[in-house]
Design a protein that fits this description.
alpha/beta; Rossmann fold; Dihydrodipicolinate Reductase, domain 2; nine-stranded mixed β-sheet; six-stranded parallel β-sheet; 17 strands; 32% helix; 20% strand; binds NADPH dihydro-nicotinamide-adenine-dinucleotide phosphate; binds 6-O-phosphono-beta-D-glucopyranose
Amino acid sequence: MKKTDNQVLVIFGASGDLTERKLIPSVYNLFCGGFLPEHYAVVGVSRSQFSDQEYRDKVVFNNEHLLAKETASEENLKKFADLVFYQSLDTKDVEKYSVLSDRLSQLDEEKETNHNHIFYLATPPSLYEVIATGLEKVGLNKQEDGWSRLIVEKPFGYNLDSAKKLNQDLLCHFEESQIYRIDHYLGKETVQNMFVTRFANSIFEPLWNRNYIHRVEITASEKVGVEKRGGYYDSSGALRDMVQNHLLQLVALVAMEPPVKPDAESIRNEKLKVFQSLRPYSEDDIKTHVIRGQYMNSKVSGNRVTGYRDEPGVKEDSKTETYVAMKFFIDNWRWADVPFYIRTGKRMPTRVTEVVIHFRPRHHHLFANDKSLANQQNVLVLRIQPNEGILLKFDMKIPGAGFNTEQVNMDFHYDDLTDVYVPDAYERLILDCMQGDATLYARGDSTEAAWEFIDPILKAWENNEEIPVYGYPAGTWGPEHADDLIEGKNMMWRYPCSNLTDDGNYCEL
Ligand code: NDP
Ligand code: BG6
């Protein structure tokens, strides 16, 4: 196991939703798993006023996300709470940051945390640059007595220009090697397993190219709507919220070349090349290859479901997309002319994230009574969530006379490995940053390259009123226009049934 230095985690946005729901529970898991170093502290920072004890009550003793854990014994909670502190600060006022540097100096002495600091930016993105400036003003960006690292939450920019500006601004105060741009999809164990599936098995990689793969499909569907985040979501939409980051990261892992070494720079270099090879969309392509939709009121299993425009914080005439489906190409040697189809949406029939590799159809039909003509392709499904696993669909002989065939499933589920603890994505990523490993964080150039691909779509949607936003009833798979993206007889998106193994348009959910 890698060594973890003594250190302090400083969370900006400490009174917010992300801190309470994800960050503190993840650090708590690291504590219970014995992953924290001997000398460690968490300091919450935001404008609200709390004493240390009041803050511990909020994020530890009364935090339902933490209390729900099996490990939440009184003794564990008490010991963990002793590591948690709070510092009120008007984050916007860069002249006030000496309050924080004084507090950290004092804690570094008392707790022997060796002047090593992670600054986690979980505030509104408009504050990222201000916080970096404030930290520099009091020398907290320096790495003389210990190290200093900055974790930056998504969204990383609002479009290409703002992402470039944010990169430039942060680089005025911190070195690239100090900046950790988080994408929690990369912390998911099954996302990392895609890398292993491809490069640790000799059976897949020889087939992993245009000669054998007909098309690649990636779906990230959510059953929930925008929940309490309507205000944020309405100025973001699915393209910024899910596609520019999470889905393109999955595309990069599916499409990248084998890295020279399994280290941060080699892997990130290969991912960048994928983003640089994405074929740019023309405005005409955008009209035909990118479908956007928005969920509408409906009844699901007899219950009324609120449409997007009626959600709190959403404008009543909003055109923000809650669904996107796209077709695109990667112009390189491996993937020339192989279509990639990706889609994501809220209020869909089920929660599932999966990568579906459709192999080329058989070139010759030997068996005349072939029952699976509609399903002539072998399919490999890398299921990322839930019920993580790998599914292979292939043809078998139906027992009895003749050579009748049928497609069957070979289905592996991660939870069959019962004794393996699968860490939460944030937990894994925070630990990596604690150990100085940036492999699973996005690099600045890659983030910009991903925005470069997405930016023309945003512009076309903004400037061309004629590009429709299709309504779809909550609880369905999105606008049917998305089906037209997929060309080819009998070819369509995979519509997984509730067991996530079988599929078909009309299966039970
Ligand atoms: P919240 O609105 O719940 O919290 C925002 C935090 O920022 C509060 O602690 C607030 O505390 C603090 N803050 C400091 N200065 C300001 C200011 N000038 N104006 C407003 N707030 C300020 O947001 P979330 O926790 O949901 O999100 C935080 C970041 O994490 C955002 O960038 C978001 O995009 C990202 N994120 C959130 C996810 C989630 O599930 N919540 C998922 C992925 C990313 P105070 O008012 O006390 O200063
Ligand atoms: C977040 C998005 O980044 O990812 C949310 O802001 C989305 O809108 C979430 O719901 C999905 O993450 P997961 O891990 O539940 O698939």
